[in-house]
Amino acid sequence: MTLIDPVDRSLAEQQGLASRLDSFTGLGDESATFIRILARAPGYAEALWDAMAEALFEGNVDHSLKEIIRIQLANKAEDPYFSSLRSKLALDSGLTEERIAAGQGDFLNDPQFTDAEKWALDYAYRMYRTPETVDAAFYDRGKELWSEAQIMEIGGLIAIHYGLQTFMRTLQQ
Amino acid sequence: MQFEPGSIDAAFYDRLREHYTEEEIVELGAFIGFNVGYHTFFRTLDFYPMFSPDGVLVSQEESRRIYGDTPGSHLRSEVQDALAETPHEAAN
Fold this sequence. Notes:
The complex is a heterodimer of chains A (173) and B (92).
Chain A: H1 9-14, H2 18-24, H3 33-38, H4 44-57, H5 63-76, H6 80-84, H7 88-92, H8 97-102, H9 115-127, H10 136-145, H11 148-170
Chain B: H1 10-17, H2 22-45, H3 60-67, H4 73-85, H5 87-91
């Protein structure tokens, strides 16, 4: 139950969203509720989900790491919907609930994460808590571990997923 | 949404529906969420407008000097300048 009702699946399909509905099930929501809510505003579901999916599933940063980051951000946004979803691709690749939980906790001191993974998790952690600490020195450290393209990939993932999770959070009681 | 998302409840959405269609509410909500996400990210990148207020292409160093340490401040400054120059028109 959301405060804005999703459109019927058949209507979403009539709007040309069938492929997006299918791809969204990759996050484990067979009903694709989020897509059908965005479908209230013509054009928004295509543009926003395409960008979110590109950020999460494509690129040159490990998808499982990005999935941990996505869930960390959903928890920060206090969004029960996106917090509960899990990427089937990441799970099939071996991502466990234990590792997801580790990415929400004391990850900086957790030896299961590489230095590059710790930096990426810390990037997401700081972004909406203490953005002023994501400064030149922080980026310099990131550049020792990631290419600039990868840093932009992680930053873009963080921005779009947190932003839309924040909106989705307000739609739930 | 950025500062008090918990206050956006059913009553808030009911109030919105008095003024906007559900299509418009989704449009607004997605727009706001997108901007909350991206502008915080952009802030960390510490970049400045490519152009001076009169439209001249400037370096990042020069732009920082023109616009100050807070990149968004030039917008507030322009609004404040407009209000100072034409207070009655702006107020109306």
